[in-house]
């Protein structure tokens, strides 16, 4: 609507004229009378005219007696929906940050504390020998094969060992419990690694297979892709330390359960002690499985003292 002007309003004069008459008497009008008038200049009158000539669709906004057109109602509805979606998106991002990052820190700290508590229960007075003095061999230099004790099967969800992987960083320790149940073992704040009950026992010839999360709930195997050939992996029990050496890895589909065979991916009989680590791949997905294989190297009885590498990593004697 054009702005109103304070200048004087020019008013058109009233103009009237008559059509021709059919008689000599001017008082007898046989035609029509036309009058030319100026248009209304008041805004209210113009709005009324527009409203009469072009009906508007009116909606009572939120039941508050606020009348708006359908176009205004749609615009406001779209704006409110957009704000709600943006707010929901922020909450989703905050949840993902908590679930994937912050929750890992909290769960990991709790699992470290539980592992340290379990280890302290097994502490005894040691001989103080160095790691080199614990080498097993004969006087002529021949290597004597180390035969570790075989652990009895633990009850479901019972913690029976600690997993120590120096490659995963300082003070990395996770507790191993029996079964791979998600609620009672893998998502538990006291345990984070589970042993497949269908696989060999710890210390037994065959395949000792374990599982853990790669992300969330402490991410027990979040750094599994950092392993290098030759890295040592320690499994601590009340009897001592089972030492394995990392050898190789592979990626498989979740349906390929042959990785849990006594000799992974084959049906031949086992002759070695193998440690198999299974976790999800890639991160934040369960499309595949990351499989890491290690072979048994030696066993250190607890009375001989903590292995040097483990002592440096976890701050033990």
Descriptive report:
With 317 residues, the protein is α+β, with helices and mostly antiparallel strands. The chain folds into 2 domains: 15-72, no CATH class; 104-314, Sortase (Sortase, Chain: A), CATH 2.40.260. It is 24% helix and 24% strand. It is built from 4 helices and 12 strands. Strands 5-6-7-8-11-12-10-9 form an 8-stranded mixed β-barrel. The chain has a two-stranded antiparallel ribbon with strand order 1-2. The protein has a two-stranded antiparallel ribbon with strand order 3-4. Strand 9 (232-236) and strand 10 (240-252) form a beta hairpin. The longest helix has 52 residues, at 70-121.
Helix-and-strand structural type:
alpha+beta
Q: What order do the helices and strands follow?
A: EEHEEHEEHEEEEEEH
Helical proportion?
10-25%
Let me know the CATH homologous superfamily of the largest domain.
Sortase
CATH topology of the largest domain, by name, is: Sortase, Chain: A
What is the rounded Rg?
A: 42 Å
CATH architecture field of the largest domain: Beta Barrel
Taken together, the total number of domains comes to 2
Question: Per DSSP, what share of the residues sits in E-state strands of 2 or more residues?
Answer: 15-25%
The first-to-last residue Cα distance is 88 Å
- CATH classification, class level of the largest domain: Mainly Beta
Largest sheet: 8 strands, mixed, barrel
Number of helices: 4
Name the poorly predicted regions: none
Question: Which of globular, elongated, flat, extended, rod-shaped describes the shape?
Answer: elongated
């Amino acid at each position: 609507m054009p702005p109103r002007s304070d200048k004087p309003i020019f008013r058109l004069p009233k103009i009237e004229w008559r059509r021709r008459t059919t008689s000599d008497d001017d008082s007898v009008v046989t035609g029509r009378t036309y009058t030319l008038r100026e248009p209304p200049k008041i805004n209210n009158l113009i709005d009324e005219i527009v409203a009469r000539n072009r009906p508007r669709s009116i909606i009572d906004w939120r039941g508050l007696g606020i009348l708006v057109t359908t176009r205004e109602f749609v615009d406001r509805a779209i704006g409110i929906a957009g704000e709600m979606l943006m707010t929901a998106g922020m909450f989703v991002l905050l949840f993902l940050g908590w679930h994937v990052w912050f929750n890992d820190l909290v769960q990991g700290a709790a699992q470290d504390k539980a592992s340290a508590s379990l280890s302290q229960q097994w502490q005894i007075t040691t001989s103080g020998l160095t790691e080199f003095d614990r080498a097993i061999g004969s006087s002529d230099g021949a290597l004597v094969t180390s035969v570790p004790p075989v652990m009895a099967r633990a009850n479901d969800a019972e913690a029976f060992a600690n997993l120590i992987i120096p490659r995963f960083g300082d003070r990395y320790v996770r507790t191993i419990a029996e079964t791979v149940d998600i609620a009672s073992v893998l998502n538990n704040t006291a345990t984070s690694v589970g042993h497949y009950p269908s696989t060999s026992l710890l210390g037994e010839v065959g395949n000792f297979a374990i599982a853990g999360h790669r992300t969330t709930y402490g991410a027990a195997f979040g750094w599994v892709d950092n392993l290098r050939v030759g890295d040592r992996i320690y499994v601590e029990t009340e009897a001592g330390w089972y030492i394995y050496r990392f050898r190789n890895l592979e990626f498989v589909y979740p349906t390929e359960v042959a990785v849990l065979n006594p000799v992974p991916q084959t049906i031949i009989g086992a002759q070695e002690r193998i440690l198999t680590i299974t976790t999800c791949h890639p991160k934040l997905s369960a499309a595949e499985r990351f499989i890491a294989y290690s072979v048994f190297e030696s066993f250190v009885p607890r009375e001989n003292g903590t292995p040097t590498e483990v002592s440096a990593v976890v701050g033990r004697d």
